[in-house]
Amino acid sequence: MRYDTIIIGGGLSGLVCGLRLAKAGKRCAIISSGQSALHFSSGSFDLLAATADGEHISSPSEAIASLVERTPSHPYAKIGAEHFVATAEAAKQTLLDAGVRVEGDAAQNHYRLTPMGTLKATWLTMDGYVRATSDEGLAWKSVVLMNAEGFLDFYTQFIVDELRKKGTTCRVSNFSLAALDNIRNNPTEMRSANIARIFDKEENIAALAEIIARGAGDAEAVLLPAFLGIDRADVLDELKRRTSREIAIIATLPPSVPGIRAQIALRRAFERAGGVYMLGDTVVGYDEREGAIERIYTVNHGNIGFEAAEFVLATGSFFSRGLVADRQAVVEPLFGVDVDAAADRADWYTRDLFEQQPFESFGVASDEQFHALRGGRAVENLYVCGAGLSGFNPLTEGCGAGVSMLSAVRVSDNILKK
């Protein structure tokens, strides 16, 4: 089987890259071993929230030149400060075109409400989720937080306490619904994704609207956990229409309904554009010719190889085993390409758990066009994008989703230029 491009990894970066290639007319396949980090998403996408030293950044577009100058190994440096805003806009538009409704821009970070009730700076947030223009507090002075009885992945008291500190009074109202009884009987089934499937059905949306109308009282807004529909994107709009109330969503602990919905939307858009998405398969080997990757082999297809002109490594970092560490070294397990990592294991970490950890910036080495390096030389038809890149700290800098999407945009552009 022959493709123009094969992408290994079906998470955010792989899907953005594949979707852009497929829409440009390239015959493209994505091979995904299973769930991606999107299933743990908060409903927001970070671009650049802080420096490596932890200094807060309010405007990514204004801060990018300084970051590139100070950190030339950062993936954003390979994109270039002069191309940063346009690349960010292209990434955002890819989400919008796929039906992932997001709000925000690179000129000014806004704040999202976390599952713990705190406000965190971010770039894009899905439509309908609680947002604020500053970390001083919400626009509302009184809200009611409505939660399904028995839902354990949502800690309402944390949210109540944090909102009170910011000047918003929050009342909690738990509700019961007959449609939830079957999964409530088994606490392990009372998870956000299972509840969300209940609210894909029209009769359950109508029942929830009645509950909201009765229980909202004089609150300025109604807040709900992120469990409103997996296949339907209009549940929140329908609740607002039926109740005539201000309603907003708060992300829960994983599994993440907004992340799953984003994954589904991007995959469907990719397949509509002609892409082939192979879920539940794992690349285990490859053939090489004159320094270039010629074909790959997977678990499900045995000795049937997949050939392509270009390959993209979007397998992520340690979380998804795109990088693997043993007691001697950190390696990229599939192609054996170079990894930027400290040689001495003692330099991989600090003993203070809450300090920035050096291993968080380890990743695959790449050149200015995001070609993977092997033995210090570029593999001309093997690109790398996403969380597996080296030179950045997604937690400290608040840039994980941004690096994933912007590097995917740049890789797809580089392939199309060929």
List keywords for this structure.
single chain; 418 residues; alpha/beta; FAD/NAD(P)-binding domain; Rossmann fold; eight-stranded mixed sheet; 12 helices; globular
Fold and architecture overview:
The structure is a single chain. By secondary structure, this protein is of the alpha/beta class. It has 2 domains: 2-106 and 260-417, FAD/NAD(P)-binding domain, CATH 3.50.50.60; 130-250, 3-Layer(aba) Sandwich (Rossmann fold), CATH 3.40.50. It contains 12 helices and 22 strands. It has helices at residues 12-23, 60-70, 75-79, 81-97, 156-165, 181-184, 192-198, 202-215, 235-243, 257-272, 394-397, 400-417; strands at residues 2-8, 28-32, 44-45, 102-103, 110-113, 119-122, 124-126, 131-132, 142-148, 169-175, 221-225, 247-250, 276-279, 283-289, 292-298, 306-313, 324-325, 330-331, 339-340, 363-364, 371-374, 377-384. Strands 1, 2, 13, 14, 15, 16, 21 and 22 form an 8-stranded mixed β-sheet that branches. A 4-stranded parallel β-sheet has the order 10-9-11-12, sandwiched between helices. A 3-stranded antiparallel β-sheet has the order 3-7-4. A hairpin with a 7-residue loop joins strand 15 and strand 16 (306-313). The mean pLDDT is 95.
Number of helices: 12
Quickly give the CATH architecture of the largest domain.
3-Layer(bba) Sandwich
Main pleated-sheet profile: 8 strands, mixed
How large a portion of the residues is in β-strands, by DSSP E?
Answer: 15-25%
Query: How many E strands?
Result: 22
Mean of all residue-level pLDDT scores: 95
Distance between the termini: 21 Å
By helix and strand content, what is the structural category?
alpha/beta
Name of the level-1 CATH class of the largest domain? Alpha Beta
CATH topology of the largest domain: FAD/NAD(P)-binding domain
Q: Share of helix among residues? A: 25-40%
General shape? globular
Tell me the name of the CATH homologous superfamily of the largest domain. Answer: FAD/NAD(P)-binding domain
